[in-house]
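Whiteboard transcription, Tuesday session. T.W. wrote the structure tokens on the left side:
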């Protein structure tokens, strides 16, 4: 309340200020009145007798009214909130009731399932019960919250009503004050209105004054405008006269130019006429030459026969002389023709150069040439084009090849120097002399003979270019460089052992195309050139096609050296001057080859297409009107006019002369008129179609006569380059007794939950009453209704029924099949069933013409609606009103299974491609109650049992179809998904026959070539023979060895090719693949229709073992019709096989192999290729990307195969395009390479003398079918050997092992072992031998190294190499280790051996005896004494060792055997030491003994043998 008091005080202060401001404003308005209006005075109306209220009273009244309005608004808000909360409370209560009801039902179900002991159902119901309880508790909590909120809002609303009641009482008490306040407000409004009227009067007075000034200004402006108009007319007259004079002068100049051009054109045309005449003469000569060649051939044959029969030598010589003279005359005539043509061209060039020279020397004589130079440039360009056309149209080249000169043929893309070389020297020399020699004034009109006879040599030409002072060496260098440049030498680019082949640069875009250009406009386009080679290269612009030089400018700055993958740009500017299409190239050159960028310039054209050329109206009843539209689209940039015409109709079917089909007797004689009226054109018949627009043309079908009708329409265009388009319309009229006046009902835009109605009128042309039944599809029965559902239509009358459409929000879900969610359009069929309309007569719906003595087969088709027996009669009428009755009987069958589709239309499928459709086999038989629904039965027979039903599809042979599953069982109320696959292929026998045909064709071609070669060689032999002597002639004539022609023919006939049997050609041969590729390219469209039976069997039926008995019922058989169109594949695999299989073969595991295949676009369309996704974790990978293919273009695909396991891999891949797919099968086999080594872990070389070597071998055996790649590596040569050695040695390691296998090496850390070979391959089922050489350079017992054998860069075997070296022949090994197996590689200083006493070496043996059966066993130990085989010839061959005083050891139980022996070189002697504990020996005591051993070889060495015995 305190806040409200403060708010009231503030408002009172503000309102008081506003009141004061209003008063001041009124006074100010009074002060600003004009002087002219001083007569106007205020008149107060005292009749109102309104007493002014005080300021506090006014404020209280305003506050009270404002507060009352605020309370009213607040009351409305509170009331609305209370209503909403009450609605929420009501909905919450309803949900609580629903949940309680559901909980009660679940509790009852729980009790039932507990009695039934159904554990699974109990778990589910209890979970549902817990969920319902949780939801119920949540709803109750929500109800409590909503109730509390409702109470609070109701309390607030009551408070607002109470406050509103208080204010209403105050309002009643101060009602008079409010009336006074309103009267005061009216008075103030009246005063303001009077003030406004006064201000309006003052503004009107000011406006009258300003209007007079404006009229005066208008008069002055009008006068000035008339004066300017007079001056302008005079200036225009003078300007016209000057412009006329200028145009006349320009026209005179143009007339002069045209006259001069016409003169030159006459000269050129006469030249062209001469060239044409010479060409015709040459053609006549060629024809004469061909005729003479045939006669010559005949003469040669005659000569051969004459020589072989009569040997008339004189006649042969005369004929030969005649032929030589004729050939000589022919060559002279040809050379004369070439010389005359060359002289004509040289004369034209000289005349041109002379005129140019005269114009330069005497410009005063040609003043018009300088003024009109810029105007006549296009005329001269046209003249040059005409000259070029005449030169190109000539049959022979301008280059005259004489015996003295030998010109190089131009390359594919040549530069300016190469082009100039192609012109003969006597032409270029004359022209250059005339252009260069500007000082001479008088030149002869025709060149002398000296110009033609002298041909400058190569040295003279080079010296002329360089000058007189150049040396001969410089001339030779320049000549070589020029020759190198002119010869077009192309360097090969080789990177990583691969030579680059192909286009060095790619252009983006591929083709520069200027479309729809206008004359005198300028067009610009940019292109990017990308370096596609393997390395750095450069790019240089060479030339542009001649026909584009006048219109195309190329802005290309050579970028210098470009790295692989980098790009540069060029800009192409096109300014057309002629409305004509151009096609050419922009030619570039690099050091690795030349390339060109295609350039097309096309004018505006009309590209007219229709969306469909065949319109099929389908089957419609007589009396309906159906409209179809075709869309004519102009995809070009040129407008044109069109006219839509129709030609004569074609009636495909007869039978229109019967009484039922013809409406009136007069129309029988005007049948064509009726046909024209059936299919006709709509209102639009002729109009203009603009660029890039489309027009819809209607075609109307109103059937009058039953039967099929065809009408041809034609679209004719004013554009001469556009061809006429023919459109064919087909329709069929059916004479049924009932038809609809409007078969299409359009309800326009509808809203949900609103009712829409329309009436439908059915018409009858029958002579009897018919029963109608209206059906709505099951998906729309909740939204659409037809009333009445059944009715009777009288003869020749109408019947109207009502359509009610009430769309609900569930319509998109209920009618998914007919409702389009994107356009939200509903299109659904409605059926009207007419009783006794289940019989159909074909062909031609029962109409036809029967000729005398002719038999016609008629099909009677019965469409049974239910399972029962049908009996009916058909009446056949003739034109003379004769009737024939046909009694018919039929049995309706309701099979226990049904198919979701009875007819399947496959899309157009390419060869070797696959199309798949799905259908369902449904078992809807769940009850035998025939009163509820239709039950399966045959006629009125027994009802089929309810239960699982078997089905089986039988695919026709050679149908290229497969179905899965072909056999199955369908439970009642369920359906089975079936996949039907269509994969068309070419039959193997057909391809094999094509292969035989190709082989025969190739053999025939080869035989013809061999025959021609034999004939040519025979003629050469006959012509090369000399004249024989008379004796030789006699002997030759009497020689019986000369073969006769018949014998030769017999020999050639006997060698004819015998075609193989097509069955004997293997399916994986090259001949088969070539024939397959040829047939794929030449394949046309094909279409097949197959009928697949589906046999049905009850699972409960008993099996019979009677031969020939089938458990399936023929009456319940279902039939599936399949339409299979086949087209040619758009993409084929070049040099592929029938299965399009890419076989990588056997590959080692974890090895990568690349394979390249080539595909080709054999269609006539531009294809954008995509591929299916390969398994990312699989072994196959597509390395390069797919790109778009032009028609006939090829593309290489690179695949990699990296098997991870030893098994077969198989993965399909599809190359997809809009027109079809190419299915590839990637297969390969991963094999784990099984290679065994003859050495397992350690290879011990043994003892070798220092500074000598020894070689041992081991083998690797390949037990697989692969070619295994191997490499051998030594650890001592590894880069990481120093890092691996940074570990504790073996004797210090905690586990007693060392991580490195590398031991002692040679001095300088040189490897002591070497292996050969270190790299290579092992063939399948073969072995490889390796040699290991041990070459120590000092004495050591601990030489070792590690050897790793890698197979395919993977370590397969690790072998430790060991060896020992001595400086002397003898060695002793064995016993306990007495030193560490590590030594320093530092080279110790050498001393004199004789001065230093030899150190006694030690051999320690520890013998352990064990106790067994209370007895001590004998312990045995061994050591070896050996002799090293030396490679030196004078070395000793054996050593001898002796053990001193071995008897002293017997007392302690030690026995050594042998005590003395001799060891041969390369052998080892084993010395055995045994210890038997003496009697009374203390097991806890250790017995030790020492004995000496001396070994004599190249030196004598002494050893101390320490024996230690213990009882273990």
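and on the right, the sequence the group agreed on:
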């Amino acid at each position: 309340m305190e806040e409200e008091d403060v708010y009231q005080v503030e408002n009172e202060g503000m309102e008081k200020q506003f009141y004061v401001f209003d008063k001041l404003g009124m006074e100010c308005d009074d002060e600003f009145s004009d002087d002219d209006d001083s007569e106007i005075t205020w008149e107060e109306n005292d009749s109102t007798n309104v007493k002014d209220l005080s300021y506090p009273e006014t404020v209280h009244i305003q506050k009270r009214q404002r507060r009352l309005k605020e309370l009213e608004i607040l009351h409305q808000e509170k009331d609305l909130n209370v209503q909403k909360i009450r609605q929420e409370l009501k909905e919450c209560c309803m949900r609580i009731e629903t949940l309680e009801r559901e909980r009660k039902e679940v509790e009852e179900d729980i009790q039932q399932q507990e009695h039934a002991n159904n554990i699974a159902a109990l778990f589910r119901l209890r979970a549902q019960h817990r969920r319902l309880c949780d939801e119920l508790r949540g709803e109750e909590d929500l109800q409590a919250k909503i109730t509390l909120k409702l109470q609070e809002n109701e309390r607030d609303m009551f408070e607002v009503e109470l406050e509103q009641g208080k204010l209403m009482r105050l309002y009643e008490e101060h009602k008079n004050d409010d009336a006074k306040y309103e009267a005061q407000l009216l008075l103030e409004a009246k005063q303001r209105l009077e003030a406004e009227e006064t201000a309006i009067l003052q503004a009107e007075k000011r406006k009258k004054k300003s209007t007079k000034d404006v009229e005066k200004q208008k008069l002055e402006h009008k006068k000035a405008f008339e004066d300017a108009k007079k001056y302008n007319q005079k200036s225009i007259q003078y300007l016209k006269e000057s412009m006329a004079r200028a145009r006349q002068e320009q026209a005179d100049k143009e007339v002069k130019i045209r006259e001069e051009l016409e003169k030159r054109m006459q000269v050129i045309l006469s030249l062209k006429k001469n060239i044409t005449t010479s060409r015709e003469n040459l053609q006549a000569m060629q024809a004469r030459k061909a005729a003479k060649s045939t006669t010559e051939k005949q003469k040669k044959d005659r000569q051969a026969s004459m020589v072989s029969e009569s040997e008339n030598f004189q006649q042969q010589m005369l004929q030969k002389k005649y032929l030589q003279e004729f050939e000589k005359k022919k060559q002279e005539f040809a050379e004369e023709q070439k010389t005359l043509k060359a002289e004509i061209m040289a004369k034209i060039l000289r005349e041109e150069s002379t005129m140019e020279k005269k114009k330069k020397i005497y410009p005063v004589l040609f003043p018009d040439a300088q003024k009109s130079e810029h105007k006549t440039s296009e005329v001269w360009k046209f003249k040059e084009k005409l000259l070029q056309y005449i030169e190109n149209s000539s049959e022979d080249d301008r280059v005259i090849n004489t015996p003295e000169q030998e010109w190089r043929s131009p390359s594919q893309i040549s530069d300016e120097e190469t082009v100039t070389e192609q012109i003969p020297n006597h032409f270029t020399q004359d022209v250059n002399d005339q252009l260069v020699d500007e000082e001479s004034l008088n030149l002869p009109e025709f060149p002398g003979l000296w110009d033609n006879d002298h041909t400058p040599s190569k040295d003279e030409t080079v010296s002329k270019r360089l000058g007189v002072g150049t040396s001969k060496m410089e001339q030779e260098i320049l000549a070589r460089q020029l020759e190198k440049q002119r010869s077009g030498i192309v360097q090969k680019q080789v990177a990583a052992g691969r030579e680059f082949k192909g286009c060095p640069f790619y252009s983006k875009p591929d083709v520069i195309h200027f479309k729809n250009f206008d004359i005198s406009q300028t067009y610009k386009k940019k292109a990017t050139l990308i370096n596609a080679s393997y390395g750095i290269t450069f790019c240089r612009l060479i030339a542009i096609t001649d026909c584009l030089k006048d219109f195309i400018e190329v802005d290309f700055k050579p970028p210098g050296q470009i790295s692989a993958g980098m790009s540069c740009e060029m800009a192409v500017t096109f300014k057309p001057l002629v409305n004509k299409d151009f096609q050419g190239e922009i030619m570039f050159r690099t050091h690795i080859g030349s390339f060109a960028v295609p350039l097309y310039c096309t004018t505006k054209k009309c590209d007219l297409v229709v969306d469909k050329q065949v319109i099929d109206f389908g089957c419609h009843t007589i009396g309906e009107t159906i409209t179809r539209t075709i869309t004519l689209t102009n995809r070009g940039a040129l407008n044109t006019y069109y006219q839509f015409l129709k030609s004569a109709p074609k009636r495909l079917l007869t039978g229109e002369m019967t009484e039922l089909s013809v409406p009136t007797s007069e129309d029988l004689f005007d049948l064509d008129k009726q046909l024209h009226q059936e299919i006709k054109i709509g209102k639009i018949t002729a109009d203009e179609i603009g660029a890039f627009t489309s027009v819809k043309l209607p075609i109307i079908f109103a059937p009058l006569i039953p039967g099929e009708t065809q009408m041809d329409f034609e679209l004719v265009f004013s554009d001469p380059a556009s061809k006429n388009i023919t459109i064919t319309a087909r329709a069929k009229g059916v004479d049924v007794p009932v038809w609809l006046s409007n078969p299409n009902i359009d309800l326009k835009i509808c809203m949900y939950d609103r009712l829409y109605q329309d009436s439908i009128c059915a018409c009858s042309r029958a002579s009897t009453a018919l029963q109608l039944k209206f059906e709505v599809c099951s998906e729309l029965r909740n939204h659409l209704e037809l009333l009445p559902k059944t009715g009777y239509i009288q003869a020749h009358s109408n019947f109207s029924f009502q359509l009610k459409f009430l769309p609900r929000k569930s319509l998109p879900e209920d009618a998914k099949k007919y409702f389009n969610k994107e356009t939200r359009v509903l299109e659904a069929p409605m059926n009207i069933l007419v009783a006794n309309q289940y019989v159909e007569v074909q062909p031609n719906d029962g109409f036809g013409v029967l000729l005398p003595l002719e038999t016609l087969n008629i099909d009677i088709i019965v469409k049974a609606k239910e399972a029962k027996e049908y009996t009916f009669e058909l009446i056949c009428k003739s034109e003379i009103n004769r009737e024939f009755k046909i009694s018919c009987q039929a049995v309706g069958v309701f099979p226990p299974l049904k198919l979701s589709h009875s007819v399947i239309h496959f899309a157009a499928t390419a060869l070797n491609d696959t199309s798949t459709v799905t259908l369902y086999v449904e078992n809807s038989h769940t009850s035998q109650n025939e009163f509820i629904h239709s039950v399966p039965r045959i006629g009125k027979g027994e009802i089929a049992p309810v239960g699982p039903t078997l089905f089986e599809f039988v695919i026709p042979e050679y149908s290229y179809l497969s179905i899965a599953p072909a056999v199955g069982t369908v439970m009642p109320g369920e359906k089975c998904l079936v996949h039907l696959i269509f994969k068309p292929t070419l039959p193997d026998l057909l391809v094999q026959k094509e292969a035989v045909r190709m082989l025969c064709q190739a053999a025939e071609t080869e035989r013809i070539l061999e025959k021609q070669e034999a004939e040519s060689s025979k003629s050469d032999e006959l012509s090369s023979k000399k004249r024989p002597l008379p004796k030789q002639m006699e002997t030759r004539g009497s020689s019986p060895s000369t073969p006769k022609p018949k014998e030769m023919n017999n020999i050639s006939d006997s060698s004819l090719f015998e075609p193989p049997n097509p069955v004997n050609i293997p399916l994986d041969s090259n001949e088969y693949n070539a024939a397959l590729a040829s047939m794929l390219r030449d394949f046309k469209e094909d279409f097949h229709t197959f009928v697949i039976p589906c046999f049905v069997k009850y699972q409960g039926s008993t099996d019979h073992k009677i031969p020939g008995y089938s458990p399936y019922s023929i009456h319940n058989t279902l039939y599936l019709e399949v339409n299979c169109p086949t087209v040619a594949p758009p993409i084929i695999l070049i040099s592929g096989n029938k299965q399009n299989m890419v076989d990588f073969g056997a590959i080692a595991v974890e090895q990568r192999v690349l394979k390249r295949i080539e595909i080709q676009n054999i269609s006539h369309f531009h294809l954008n290729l995509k591929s299916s996704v390969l398994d990312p974790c699989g072994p196959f990978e597509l390395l390069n990307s797919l790109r778009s293919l032009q028609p006939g273009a090829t593309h290489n695909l690179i695949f990699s195969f990296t098997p991870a396991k030893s098994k077969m891999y198989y993965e399909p891949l599809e190359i997809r395009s809009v027109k079809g797919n190419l299915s590839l099968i990637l297969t390969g086999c991963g094999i784990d390479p099984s290679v065994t080594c003859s050495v397992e872990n350690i290879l011990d070389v043994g003892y070798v003398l220092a500074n000598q070597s020894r070689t041992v071998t081991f083998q690797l055996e390949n037990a697989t079918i692969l070619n295994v790649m191997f490499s051998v590596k030594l650890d001592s040569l590894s880069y990481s050997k120093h890092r691996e050695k940074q570990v504790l040695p073996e004797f210090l390691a905690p586990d007693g092992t060392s991580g490195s296998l590398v031991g002692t090496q040679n001095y300088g850390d040189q490897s002591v072992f070497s292996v050969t070979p270190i790299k290579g391959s092992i063939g399948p089922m073969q072995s490889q031998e390796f040699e290991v050489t041990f070459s120590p350079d000092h004495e050591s017992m601990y030489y070792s190294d590690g050897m790793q054998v890698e197979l395919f860069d993977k370590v397969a075997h690790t072998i430790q190499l060991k060896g020992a070296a001595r400086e002397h022949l003898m060695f002793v090994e064995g016993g306990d280790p007495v030193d560490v197996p590590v030594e320093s590689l530092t080279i110790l200083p050498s001393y004199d051996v004789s001065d230093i006493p030899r150190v006694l070496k030690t051999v320690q043996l520890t013998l352990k005896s064990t106790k067994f059966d209370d007895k001590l066993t004998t312990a045995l130990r061994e050591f070896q004494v050996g002799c090293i085989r030396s490679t030196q010839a004078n070395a000793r061959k054996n050593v001898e060792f002796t053990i001193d005083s071995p008897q002293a050891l017997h007392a302690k139980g030690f026995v050594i055997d042998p005590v003395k022996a001799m060891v041969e070189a390369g052998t080892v002697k084993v010395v055995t030491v045994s210890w038997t504990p003496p009697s009374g020996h203390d097991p806890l005591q250790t017995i030790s003994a020492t004995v000496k051993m001396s070994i004599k070889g190249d030196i004598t060495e002494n050893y101390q043998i320490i024996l230690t015995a213990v009882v273990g």
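Someone added at the bottom: Residues 140 and 673 are 82 Å apart (CA to CA).
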